[in-house]
Amino acid sequence: MKSLLTGNEALAQGIMDAGASYASAYPGTPSTEILENLALCKQRIYAEWAPNEKVALEGAIGASYAGARSAALMKQVGLNVAADAFFTSASTGVNAGLIVVSADEPGIHSSQNEQDNRWYALHANIPMLEPSDSQECYSMAFEAFDLSEKYSTPVLIRMTTRVCHSKSLVELREPLEKRILPVVNDPKKFVPVPANARLHKSNVLKRAKLLYEESEESNLNYDEYISDDTGIIASGICYQYAKEVFGDNASYFKIGFSHPLPYKKIAEFASKVKKLYIIEEDDPYMETLIAAHGIKALGKEVFPSEGEITPDVIRKCVFGKTLETIDYDKSQTPLRAPALCAGCPHRGIFYMLGKQKNVYLSGDIGCYTLGFAPPYNAIHSVTCMGASISAAHGAQKIFTSTDSKMRAIAIIGDSTFFHTGVNSLMNVAYNNSNTITVILDNRITGMTGHQENPGSGKTAQMEDANIIDIPALCRALGVKNVRTFNPNDLVQTEKTLEWALSLDEASVIISRYPCVLKKMSAKDTEEFKGAFKSKCGLDKDKCIGCKMCLKAGCPSVSYDAENKKVKIDANTCVGCGVCMQICPKGAIYTVSEEKHK
Amino acid sequence: MNVKCIMMAGVGGQGTILASKLMTIGLTQAGYDVKMSEIHGMSQRGGSVTSQIRYADKVYSPFIELGSADVICAFERLEALRCLEYLKPGGTVIVNDYRIDPMSVITGAAQYPENVIQTLKQKANTIVIEATKLAESINAYRSTNIVLLGAVVSALGLDDINWEKIIENNVKQQFVEINKKAFCLGVESFRVKTA
To answer: What does pTM read for this prediction?
Structure first.
């Protein structure tokens, strides 16, 4: 019986069935569910959330050295964080099989860039596999571990959003037995001092030749010869899209083993067709390498280098038009961008930050990045995880040295603070700047769908865990001024912010309130009594329709133009009371959920 | 058979993902090759979301291309309009007569279009289901998605699949009965609207 699985579910199953013992990840769309699925199978595999991708990969390297098949899983920008460990492990090699998964995001659904991580395989000179559906996600886990052990190299599995998050049928195999290889005591191989590292470089070059031969022989690279008119070279989801559009009117060269590429086989295929296309999302990775081997094909002069190359894009690029569509006025449909949820604990602080003058707001990666948008307009810039604090530090040094009145405020979430914010705060304290760091501690990793973290009290496999005491950590780093506040209490929020702004030295203010979507633990329920258990109501006689409450930016509060008053959607409101505290006429009240019924 | 395409469109948090999941389980049990694509991540934050389902004897792409959806099931009016370019000419729109203002409308930067339902009716075979009202009538606002699932099942003539059993096996125990009721309301409403 086949199972209908997402690419992420299938890869997780493959990693387990191929006998892996260790998996580590930091959550990041679209890769998150790979580790989530592994974590469910406590009896079969150890799976953990690491504070960041570098730590995740280093843990997996250690597990491989200790003799166990292991995997580190991340989104595309996560591999930048892990790159240091990635490159060195690529030259030292492995003991037991090591897989690194990069989930890339053509179309940028939930990321800060559209980087194409296939170049990482070329750059580090390691093998790369690219699945095109869930069946391949499953079986390539086996292939990757075998390759890793055969050639003593980490293997990159490159996924994309559509492969990760689409479902298709998978035939499962008999799982392999888990085995632990003996630990190898070989400093020449595993200690990259310069003398050894030079040997490693030679080994990598020798290995690359062997891997090329492997790719030429691999049944992951194959042709489907149907017609001599049009040939298509494609990997990943683009292969499926091409089959959809061209059907039996083209021949295909399917690439599954995409570094090194099988140039001989590709040349042979190219010689059999009159017109050759290379269809690939993101960069002209295959096109560049194939062209360097003297094979002519149509690639990015036909297909875009940005966004997804969906079947309609292929159709338009090749045939000049999409399928017939219904004609209507699309300008009528306003965009529906993501917004902070009703009851989001970030609302109060963003409402207050948006009102500040002479501040530079340095943002970070999480739901709270949305603080840049109206109605708050409360973030000037965002770079990458952890950068809010370090960039604020740099900005503040310039403001201070130029006698500017501006103050730099960094805004970062709890999980992101643990990820890479801690080092940045160390720099603030060590190099003596007077930035304000706002840590939005919503007791969970929010945006990726509620993963446990070093502050939440549970591990990925739901064991009890030590909880980082954020105020104590900040003090230990050297920040003297640390306060915690309730972001749903606007007076307290404003006072805390005023206090921080009045200081001439660095401060950290911590907004502590759980994510509205978090499954509350007994501890949470005790600490945050009555959270999300009420509703806001409107006294229509008092509402003057001034729209002040709309500045809360709450999806439950909208303006009813007909009655010239606001309205509150009782289905979605959870009674956080931020709009109530903004209302100048006392027209909004809260009642308990029970009473509301 | 030609590939059939269903697009479920809504606002993050409305339950499009669960409805699509149940649909794909049913189609798999019926023996089809099934592919489904959805985007999640930021989508919990009230943005536009779609889940796309394709089924036939053999399916390649999990992604529905422009002009090829047999059924668009919109959980919110504006989202029906947004997805209309994906409808195959002659296809069916099932739309929940329900409005959720995007933040751009709340802040006054944009207007919620008037007469969405009328526009839809002019352009396509449109069946209006009061899914949220029906769900609220059984005190189950959150089962709006299952009411709509019932309507889609009827629109595609997939009544032979054992949907009750699928709901039993895939919904939390305490919500099974209410969701079975919601499903029947969707089936019934579709029948009345198309009679």
So the answer is: 0.96
> How many folded domains does chain B comprise?
1
User: Per the domain annotation, does A335 fall within a domain?
Assistant: no
What does the pLDDT read at residue B41?
59
Average pLDDT over residues A492-518: 97
Mutation for A interface: B106, B114, B125, B142, most A CBs within 10 A: B106
| Position A544 in a domain | yes
Q: A124 and A61, same structural domain?
A: yes
CA–CA min distance A561, chain B (Å): 11
Do A234 and A199 share a structural domain? Answer: no
Tell me: do A207 and A113 sit in the same domain: yes
Considering CB atoms only, which of B12, B35, B104 is closest to A334? B104
**pLDDT above 90: percentage of residues in chain A:** 96
Of B36-45, B131-140, B180-189, the range with the lowest mean pLDDT is B36-45
User: pLDDT tens, A310-330?
Assistant: 999 999 999 999 999 999 998
Distance of alpha carbon A565 from alpha carbon A562, whole angstroms: 8
Of B46, B63, B109, the CB nearest to A310: B63
A-chain CB neighbours of B11 within 8 Å are 336
Chain B residues touching A169 at Cβ < 8 A: 28, 33-34
**For A312, which residue in chain B has the nearest alpha carbon?**
B65
Query: Same domain, yes or no, for A281 and A352?
Result: no
Give the residue-averaged pLDDT of A423-441.
Answer: 98
Strands (E) across B4-61 are located at: 4-11, 33-38, 48-56
Write the single-letter amino acid at B114.
Answer: E
Q: How far apart are CA A14 and CA A165, in angstroms?
A: 16
A168–B35 C-beta distance less than 8 A? yes
Domain end among A472, A493, A527: A527
For A557, name the nearest residue in chain B, comparing CA atoms only.
Answer: B106
- Which of B60, B65, B88 is facing A315, going by the closest CB pair? B65
Partner-chain contact B103 A326, CB within 8 Å: no
- Is the CB of A341 less than 8 angstroms away from the CB of B107? no
Burial B61-80 (b: 16+ CB within 10 A, else e): bbbbbbbbbbbbbbbbbbbb
In this predicted structure, what is the pLDDT of residue A597? Answer: 60
From A217, A259, A211, select the one nearest A235 (Cα to Cα). Answer: A259
Q: Say what the ipTM of the complex is.
A: 0.95
Where in the sequence is the domain holding A116, given as residue range(s)?
3-217
The number of CA neighbours under 13 Å toward the Cβ of B14 is: 31
